[in-house]
Design goal:
Blueprint: H1 3-16, H2 22-68, H3 83-97, H4 101-109, H5 129-140, H6 164-172, H7 192-203, H8 210-217, H9 231-239, H10 258-273
């Protein structure tokens, strides 16, 4: 029964109600009120389902955009939050990550990373390997190190991939690697350990001995969770003060965020402007 038909039926009942007892009339009103509430609830549910369907389509659209966009920041997840609320949330995230707004602007001005189409940077969002490749190529001018130029066949990176050239460069220069099946895995989320290790490879891993690595990492309670392949590289990042660590944990397995990458890039850019901030290497006795 539709809502309109129900209302017509109530009108018909109303015409016969004078001949009904008071109790019967009361029950009729109660029943009618309950039915109206049911219709209101049903209508609200239909609207909710329509909204949910729209949201699902939005997320599907955003995912498609993310896979085909520039450095990954070109995709926009539409949001119903008020702009002021979004700005406040961004400030809270920056504070939690120890990042300043001017650091983000510095990285944007350098052309290394960019805002999303909604005008916000979204420092809380993670990164995938293709984004990291693009950032490293831009920041370190890795194309200048790529003297080979010979195309590498990657099963999962076609020539029309948005970061095809950058991925080719980081693989040819050895900054990032492929798996045993020859796949780059461009959409794989990047952990802090993997992101830091790749950055250190581009930056230049310091010639630490195992004793020096152990001393640099000794203050961190989760140093045992660092993969063996990343220990020297992450020790370089810690020693060079290129990562922002709050407390005594590195959380190497956590996804690296855009905000954390901003901090690293900002520190690197500061060192280029003032080389005297680069510390001396502690040699084993």
């Amino acid at each position: 029964m539709t809502k309109n038909k129900f209302i017509m039926m109530v009108v018909v009942l109303w015409q016969f109600m004078p001949g009904m007892g008071a109790e019967a009339q009361l029950r009729t009103f109660s029943w009618a009120e309950a039915q109206l509430r049911t219709f209101s609830w049903a209508e609200a549910q239909l609207r909710t389902f329509s909204w949910a369907e729209a949201q699902l389509r939005t997320f599907s659209w955003a995912e498609a955009q993310l896979r085909t966009s520039g450095d990954g920041a070109k995709a926009q997840l539409p949001t119903s939050r008020d702009g002021a609320e979004a700005q406040l949330r961004t400030k809270e995230i920056l504070t939690a990550q120890g990042i300043k707004g001017e650091q983000i602007q510095q990285v944007i001005d350098a052309g290394i990373m960019s805002n999303y189409p909604d005008g916000l940077f979204h420092p809380e969002r993670g990164m995938v390997r293709s984004e990291l490749a693009a950032i490293l190529v831009k920041n370190f001018d890795l194309g200048l190190r790529d003297s080979n130029g010979e195309e590498i066949i990657l099963q999962d990176v076609p020539r029309n991939h948005w970061a095809y050239q950058e991925i080719q460069i980081v693989v040819r220069t050895g900054i990032m690697t492929v798996d045993e099946r020859g796949r780059f895995l461009p959409d794989l989320p990047v952990t802090r350990a993997a992101g830091w290790a790749a950055f250190a490879q581009a930056y230049g891993v310091l010639p630490f001995g195992e004793g020096e690595v152990a001393r640099v990492l000794e203050p961190y309670g989760d140093r045992g969770e660092i993969p063996a392949w990343g220990r020297e590289a992450i020790a370089t990042m810690v020693f060079e003060e290129l990562i922002n660590v709050n407390g005594s944990l590195l959380y190497p397995d956590r996804p690296i965020t855009r905000g954390e990458m901003v901090y690293t890039l900002s520190q690197y850019l500061a060192k280029q402007q003032n080389p005297g901030t680069i510390p001396s290497i502690p040699l084993d006795p």
